[in-house]
Amino acid sequence: MNNFAPLETNLANPALVSDAKYDILLVENNYVIQRIVLMILTECGHSIELAEDGILGLDAFKDRALQNKPFDVIFMKVSMLLMDGMEAVQCIRAYEMQYELSPTPIIAFLGYSTIADRELWHQAGIDYILTHPIRPVDLLDAISRVITEAGVVL
């Protein structure tokens, strides 16, 4: 017997599911994590665009900015090939400053985190940090927190 509630039970909790539907960029190179996050967020009605590394994530971010259709939230994995999450976040924040864009809330995925790691990520422009394992309640709570703090209005 396991101690995990089924996904449906977690998402059926009205405190976790909001009427607001967000446009989210998921920058993640692990197929299993991609599927888990996509399943949770699409089941809640959010629209997700997937980028498999920091370069593709940065390109997706810039494309949306140029179309004047920015993402509401970005989920960014820390450790990736080609361009890691730290560099991608720094590039996103620099682009926002250069073009005077409102900062997009960014949530980082970390395998583990120390207090020093968290401080480093916050200084780089991360708004919220999630560590593994990824649980539906944590994903949805993180979105709610960063959206509220950023004052995003749909």
TrEMBL record:
Pfam family, any one: Response_reg
Molecular function per GO: protein histidine kinase activity
Protein name (database record): CheY-like superfamily
Classification lineage: Eukaryota, Fungi, Dikarya, Basidiomycota, Agaricomycotina
Domain Response regulatory: 23-147
SMART domains from the UniProt entry: REC (SM00448)
InterPro entries the record matches: CheY-like_superfamily (IPR011006), Sig_transdc_resp-reg_receiver (IPR001789)
Ribonucleoprotein in keyword set: no
PROSITE patterns linked to this entry: RESPONSE_REGULATORY
UniProt GO BP: cellular hyperosmotic response; phosphorelay signal transduction system
Organism in which the protein naturally occurs: Mycena maculata
Keyword annotations from UniProtKB, A to Z: Phosphoprotein, Two-component regulatory system
